[in-house]
Specification:
With 328 residues, the protein is of the alpha/beta class. It folds into 2 domains: 5-174, HUPs (Rossmann fold, 3-Layer(aba) Sandwich), CATH 3.40.50; 187-326, Beta Barrel (Elongation Factor Tu (Ef-tu), domain 3). It has helices spanning 45-61, 88-98, 115-129, 153-159, 176-185, 189-196, 212-215, 303-326, and strands at 5-8, 12-14, 19-21, 33-37, 64-70, 103-107, 132-137, 163-166, 201-207, 221-225, 235-242, 249-257, 269-274, 285-295. α5 (176-185) packs antiparallel against α6. The two termini are 34 Å apart.
Length: 328
């Protein structure tokens, strides 16, 4: 399948990227549409099953397969916990990688006034154009996306002669996303990976730090993440570092925490120490793939004790990642 088209149903200023997205009209000449609805956070195995079912329905009837994605509301401020498994851009990338959809339609955020009305208006337009023939979605959605689902949406769609399906499809539980969030928050990243179908990943820009790691003999890349992104609990992890869009990756020991041995009251940092490479990563955008949790963040009585433990962490990370490559 060709690269998935992304169409915004409303005009939206993407300030963080400086891109002004113009709405694009639908064409009645296009093939009928099978539409999958979800918040798609995580694009996990349950979402993949929904996408495959949508693709199956479309192929059986020679329709087009498409997904509907609500624009997320601002999250991750000072008083808001970070709970998203994926950023907005990550969801688009992951949906494209599923290779199930020809088109992705972006709707207003469910938190915006009248967002559901806007979505329903577009559904009605699709119906009038004869472009919408099927509606598929997660069962009993919860949270923000639920506000895109008026209680009579399924009835309205059926009354309009649409095929309506609600999963789950496959063997994935309906609350899989909530379960994955619990696993990530607890540092159980290997279990989270099994539920997602891919390694839990964070992406961020490498920013300047206090260079203390370099002074201790363990230089690190300090990442600044989007505030809405859920990070695993504080601790030490084995993982991989890669440049977005690149297949090359480097083994790393990853630290998340407030560095209690260094001082009190420090803010949380995410740092990656490359195990077998010395590369200047400052100013680059990196992805960290979490493989396994090693230990809690600890306060050591001396820098010598910290250095010794960091050596153990490095060797344990190297062993875990080598075993993953070897398939053990």
């Amino acid at each position: 399948m060709e690269t998935m088209r992304v169409i915004y149903l409303i005009e939206r200023q993407r300030e963080h990227r400086g891109h002004h997205a113009q709405p694009q009209p639908l064409s009645g000449a296009e093939a009928p549409l099978a539409l999958a609805l979800s918040d798609w956070d995580g694009v996990h195995r349950g979402h993949a099953a929904l996408a495959r079912r949508c693709q199956q329905v479309a192929r059986e009837r020679e329709w087009r397969a498409a997904a509907l994605l609500p624009w997320p509301s601002p999250e991750g401020g000072d008083n808001t916990p970070s709970t998203r498994l994926t950023t907005f851009e990550e969801r688009i990338t992951l949906l494209d990688q599923l290779d199930c959809f020809e088109t992705l339609y972006i709707t207003p955020s469910p938190e915006q006034p009248h967002a559901a009305d806007v979505a329903l208006a577009w559904l009605r337009e699709w119906r009038e154009l004869g472009a919408l023939s099927a509606l598929l979605g997660e069962p009993a959605p919860t949270g923000a996306v639920a506000r895109l689902w008026p209680t009579d949406l399924a009835d309205r769609a059926r009354d309009a002669g649409l095929l309506v399906e609600q999963g789950p499809w496959g063997k994935q539980p309906a609350d899989l996303g909530a379960r994955i969030r619990e696993l990530v928050a607890a540092g159980r990243v290997r279990e989270a990976t099994a539920a997602l179908g891919y390694a839990y990943t964070v992406t961020g820009d490498v920013v300047g730090g206090d260079r203390r790691g370099r002074l201790l003999g363990f230089p690190t890349a300090n990442l600044r993440l989007e505030p809405s992104k859920l990070t695993p609990k504080n601790g030490i992890y084995a993982g991989w570092v890669r440049l977005p869009g690149s297949s090359a990756r480097w083994p790393a020991a990853v630290s998340i925490g407030v560095r209690p041995t260094v001082g009190e009251g420090l803010h949380q940092q995410i740092e990656a120490h490359l195990l077998d490479a010395t590369i200047d990563l400052y100013g680059l955008r990196l992805q960290l793939e979490f493989v396994e949790y090693l230990r809690d963040e600890l306060r050591f009585e001396s820098f010598e004790a910290l250095i010794q433990q960091m050596g153990y962490d490095r060797e344990q990370s190297r062993s875990i990642l080598r075993a993953e490559v070897d398939g053990r």
